[in-house]
Amino acid sequence: MAAEDADHAALIGKEFNTTEELSTFLQNHALRNGRKYRLYDKSGGRSRKYVCTSGEDCPFVINVNRRRYAKKFCPWYISSAMLEHANCQSAPKATLKQMLDLKAFKVAASSTKLPRAKDLIEQAKILDDINLENQLRTVYEAMKVIREKQSSGEITAYEPRVQLASFVDQFKELNPGSYTNVEASDDDDSFLRAIVVPGVLVRASRFNQLFYALEAGPINGQEYNQLLLIGRDGNLQNITLAAAIVDSASKDNYMWFFQACTQAGLKMDVPIFVDRTEPLLACGKALKLQFVHSTDHIIRDCTASFGCLFPTVKNLISKLQCCETRQLYDNTLQVIRRTANKDLALYFEKIDPEQWALFPNITTRPLYSWNSSNLIEAEMTAAQLDHVQNIHPVLYFESVLSLSIAKMYDRSCLAKSWIKERRQVTPGAEELFEKERQEAVNYDCLCSSEVLVYVSRLSEISTVVRRVDLEKKTCSCKDMVQNRIPCRHYCAALTRLGKFEQVYDAFGSEYQICTYAEAYLGRHIEKPLQTDLDMHNNTTTYPKYPKRKAPASPQSTNTHKKTPKKTSNDLDYSTDDE
User: Which residue windows are transmembrane per the record (predicted)?
Assistant: First the structure.
């Protein structure tokens, strides 16, 4: 509602020198707001009324009048408007001129290789938030205009390598402390790999949860692979720390990626969640990285190797991962051997338990319950990159960085509001803690001293007793060690001793608002604009792309049919697409 009021205030009184200028403005306004307007009424050449194309049920209207004694200057102005839509089914259609002004089309026009029409449509969805799926004919017309302008020299086209070279140079200049690198093949000078690591995210990573996750997979429709290093902040939200494009998923490229992350300043002596591909495992062994695997990775790998797994077997695998002692791990593995098959049991015997099981890590390093979630799928869905085909390399990095820019701004705003609310820990951590606090009433406490308490469950004959040390802020259960958030046993002990106000002192530093603010408050990322890229004077030598077979040009099925004339009564000047 506030945005609508601001839009209304900006519209009223706005002046236009010509009718064409007025029509262009309203066309762009309609496209920006996802609607379609039409001229409803003209009165004596001095007033116009524009309404929504949905019909009488929609109250939207913009009234425009001509100033009576100012025909030479500003003859038209918006006198009143009702911008609210109701029962509205109108959908915008971009004109040819509007389409050529979209960011996706401008980037395509500056490249020597024009993408396919359906790829342009996908890129327009991401970069311009415009749906062109029902305007395929107009997209082809726009592509034809771009080719004609490139042929005539009106538009200068550059190799993607030149654009990316300028892009990374500009990005590094705008964001001091950032790391960028592009490399070529020694054999034929063809594209090999490129990486961007924003400096502000490197600094913030020191205040996040102490782990990373790697996304490694092909970019759909391309011969290249993307590598994303994902972290998680103190509010339990994912954040992309490094993004790279490589020519293949090889051991050499993986090693280059992790070495580049180290040179960028990222702390690499923490657990890194990865899948179990051979080149990646070989890279981890060579660099002595702390690779670990989630239960989801293990189950998918087992399904690919041994076929579909029964739910009981999947449950046993999850139970195997959660074992708190070596003896319990071996016993569960024997159950899998008897229940499933020997090959599956042999598969787990070959995996170092330290790389996926809980018991070797229970007291040495926090893993933040990593087996219960999949960081990468959520991050890639948010980035909207998983369905983009033949994406321009600059657009790929720009899309990743745009997401990082938006999230960094949101985090800065959140830190400011949480400080104002006098919060002590982040809402994400508070939500997990609240579940533990509610369970604390179900536990009995045996106080040994003012700082040492033994906790067990009420109304149960159980041998499981947890030892809580309030001085060291520890509990013998796995949850508090692994999540660095006070567990139910710790809450019960504090309540028994009447010291519950001290509970926030036991949260890990990554969850504290002061730490979160140190990482994100007032921080921001900048990205280069296409208009700022210097194609003639860049300091980075970027290699040429390997030649590919160009897609076939679309064949017109109706070459003799004339395009119908466009009317002035409708602000949608594009032809209807079949």
Answer: none
Whether the pLDDT of residue 509 is over 90: the answer is: yes
79 — pLDDT class (breaks 50, 70, 90): confident
What is d(CA 61, CA 377) in angstroms, rounded to the nearest whole number? 43
The pair of structure tokens assigned to 404 is: 């990082």
- pLDDT tier at 162 (50, 70, 90 boundaries)? low
518 falls within a domain:
no
The answer as to whether 8 is a domain residue is: yes
> How much is the average pLDDT of 495-508?
93
How many other CB atoms sit within 10 Å of the CB of residue 111? 20
Residues 74 and 110 both lie in one domain = no
Looking at the structure, tell me whether residues 433 and 498 fall in a common domain. Answer: yes
Q: What is the pLDDT of residue 482?
A: 86
Q: Residue 10: which domain range?
A: 2-82
37-62 as b/e: b if 16+ CB within 10 A? bbbeeeeeeeebebbbbbeeebebbb
**pLDDT on residue 73:** 56
Instruction: Compare 375 and 571 and report the one with higher pLDDT.
Output: 375
Buried b (16+ CB within 10 A) or exposed e, 487-496: bbbbbbbbbb
> Contact at 8 Å (CB) between 70 and 85?
no
Contact 497, 468 (CB under 8 A): no
Structural domain ending residue among the three candidates 364, 388, 408: 364
Same-domain check for residues 69 and 106: no
Q: b or e along 154-191 (b: 16 or more beta carbons within 10 Å of the residue's beta carbon)?
A: eeebbbbbbbbbbbbbbbbeebeebbbbbbbeeeeeeb
Same domain flag for 448 and 487: yes
Give 295: exposed, middle or buried? Use CB within 10 Å, 0-12, 13-18, 19+.
buried
Q: Which residue has the higher pLDDT, 500 or 363?
A: 500
User: Is residue 44 one of the residues assigned to a domain?
Assistant: yes
pLDDT at 501 over 50: yes
pLDDT tens digits, one per residue of 172-197: 999 999 999 988 766 655 667 899 99
* Matching residue, tokens 């050449």: 45
Domain-ending residue, one of 82, 114, 134: 82
Quick one: 61 and 7 in the same domain?
yes
Whether residue 480 is found in the same domain as residue 504: yes
Per-residue burial over 349-372, b if 16 or more Cβ lie within 10 Å, else e, is eeeebebbbbbebbeebbbbebbe
Share of the chain residues as helix, strand and coil, in percent rounded to the nearest 5 = 45, 15, 40
Place of tokens 């077997």: 313
Number of domains into which the chain is organized: 4
Query: Measured between alpha carbons, how far is 161 from 84 in angstroms, rounded to an integer?
Result: 46
Assess if residue 189 is contained within a domain: no
- Alpha-carbon gap, residue 400 to 402, rounded angstroms: 6
Q: Please state, as a whole number, how many other Cβ atoms lie within 10 Å of the Cβ of residue 127.
A: 18
Query: Are 66 and 124 in the same domain?
Result: no
Q: Which of the pair, 321 or 435, is modelled with greater confidence?
A: 435
Instruction: Give yes or no: residues 131 and 74 share one domain.
Output: no
- Determine the average pLDDT of the residues in 111-121: 77
Asked if residue 563 has pLDDT above 50, the reply is: no
